[in-house]
Task: inverse folding
């Protein structure tokens, strides 16, 4: 047993990479269709948007860049589909300069799919420097913070922004964040000061750090990682890339859990061996 | 399908495979992908910053206001932040580097003034407020609501939260020796920390696997006939190149 454990602990790590690759590839080619359970934090975002009256103002901030695309793009697409279906007025923007093109393409794609018109049903403001200072500026006067949208059209007089002066006129806000310049920043400089309801969508890496905000009610919902995106796709009844990836996610998690358990067993079998040989 | 879409698919598939070739070992294909990534990221950021900041936020509004009202001093107000920005560049000239302190003083002063009250309110006061919830069951549900683990504000969760906060804070309180009841409290704090680290690690694994799934999904898409079997062709080229490079390296090693 000890010989086997010793061999296993010293196994070529490329075999583990191969195992993980197979665990990802196989379910993507042959999906199992595992059920997706909806968590209360994702349901809270869905319920809030569902309860908004038509033509309410929904602000969505794509605070990520292409490196987080697999997790956050499906969330953005699902949220936009839901908001367009509810006939909300959507204001889009980003705090991440390198995410501007990606965010604009997501808006254009989903708007075309839902038959919505730029300037009338939605506007993508693009990026502007400042981070927290930009949010404060938006809280004072949206048109000074963004005199023109991403397409260089003047924001003043746009039908989609009718009656909107600043963040106080926003009915709901969701930040899709891959880091600090996202949900927390929107809460600290936005919601806490200008009193609008907000939720967050995040990568899996930063999701645990956002649960204290969720618990305390500082955000009313949280869509975490690919799992959260898949839950939202299930809620709106439009299965997308996140749902398609969940089988692969479950398979890789299973492989990793087995590997962690096996590794611990092998180390347990070999416990003290290093000390004796020394 | 548009030529640029197919070309983009070939570039994306090729660079993904080149980067993943590092899992075999460090090699020239990986280096090529890595250098292209760094260069293109920087180039893309510079171009975007030029258009979105310099042109859109500074040059266009400044030139417009100067043309419309050249005699109005307010037309030139954008020159103030521009000068402050330029002063930051004096860091590169040691003789006048002190001028950059003016800009930094502005940034630090403004940043602190804006951030401190908001941060104290959001990260400290609101979080403390949530830690001191009622321990006794209130409202509908009675004891069952008190014991409901799924309800964030339930009594049992409030007690767990309180124990966690106090024990973790005590663990980081080094002025008192951790012996007797103090040791029990500090140990409890460690267990809470371990659970938090475990949750963070689990989410990190999920996140990284999602990125892998995203790349694999793209690779599968690009392996279709409409993309000219980009993934399959480039996978073959990558494997062949790695094999050639490996054979070359071994021969070189043998000669050496």
Result:
């Amino acid at each position: 047993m000890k010989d086997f454990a010793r061999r296993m602990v010293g196994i070529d790590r490329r075999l583990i990479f191969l195992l993980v690759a197979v665990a990802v590839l196989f379910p993507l080619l042959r999906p199992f269709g595992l059920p997706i359970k909806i968590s209360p934090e994702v349901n809270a975002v869905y319920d809030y948007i569902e309860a908004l009256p038509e033509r309410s103002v929904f602000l969505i901030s794509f605070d990520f860049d292409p490196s987080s695309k697999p997790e956050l793009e499906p969330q953005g697409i699902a949220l936009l589909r839901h908001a367009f279906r509810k006939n909300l007025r959507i204001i889009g923007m980003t705090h991440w300069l390198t995410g501007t093109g990606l965010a604009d393409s997501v808006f254009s794609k989903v708007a075309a799919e839902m038959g919505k018109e730029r300037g009338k049903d939605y506007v993508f403001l693009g990026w502007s420097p400042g981070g927290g200072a930009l949010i404060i500026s938006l809280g004072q006067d949206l048109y000074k913070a963004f005199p023109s949208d991403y397409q260089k059209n003047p924001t003043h007089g746009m039908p989609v922004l009718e009656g909107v002066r600043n963040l106080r006129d926003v009915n709901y806000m969701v930040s899709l964040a891959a880091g600090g310049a996202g949900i927390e920043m929107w809460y600290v400089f936005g919601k806490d000061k200008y009193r609008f309801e907000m939720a967050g969508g995040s990568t899996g890496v930063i999701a645990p750090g956002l649960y204290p905000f969720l618990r305390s009610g500082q955000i009313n919902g949280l869509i975490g990682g690919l799992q959260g995106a898949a839950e939202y796709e299930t809620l709106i009844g439009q299965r997308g890339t996140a749902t398609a990836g969940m089988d692969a996610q479950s398979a890789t998690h299973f492989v990793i859990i087995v590997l962690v358990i096996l590794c611990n067993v092998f180390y347990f079998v070999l416990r003290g061996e290093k000390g004796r040989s020394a | 399908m548009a030529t640029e879409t197919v070309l983009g698919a070939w570039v994306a598939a090729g660079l993904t495979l080149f980067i993943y070739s590092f899992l075999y070992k460090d090699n020239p294909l990986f280096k090529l992908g890595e250098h292209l990534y760094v260069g293109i990221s920087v180039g893309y950021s510079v171009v975007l910053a030029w258009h979105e900041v310099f042109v859109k936020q500074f040059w266009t509004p400044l030139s417009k206001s100067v043309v419309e009202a050249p005699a109005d001093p307010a037309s030139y107000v954008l020159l103030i932040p521009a000068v402050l920005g330029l002063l930051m560049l004096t860091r590169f000239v040691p003789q006048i580097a002190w001028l950059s302190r003016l800009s930094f003083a502005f940034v630090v002063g403004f940043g602190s003034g804006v951030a401190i009250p908001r941060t104290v309110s959001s990260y400290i006061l609101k979080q403390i407020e949530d830690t001191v919830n009622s321990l006794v069951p209130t409202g509908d549900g009675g004891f069952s609501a008190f014991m409901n683990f799924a309800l964030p504000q339930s009594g049992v969760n409030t007690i767990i939260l309180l124990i966690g906060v106090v024990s973790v804070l005590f663990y980081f309180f080094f002025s008192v020796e951790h012996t007797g009841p103090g040791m029990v409290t500090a140990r409890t704090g460690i267990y809470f920390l371990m659970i938090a680290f475990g949750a963070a690690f689990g989410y990190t694994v999920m996140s990284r696997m999602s990125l892998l799934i995203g790349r694999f999904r793209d690779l599968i898409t690009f392996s279709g006939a409409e993309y000219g079997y980009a993934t399959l062709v480039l996978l073959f080229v990558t494997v062949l190149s790695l094999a050639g490079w490996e054979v070359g390296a071994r021969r070189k090693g043998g000669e050496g």
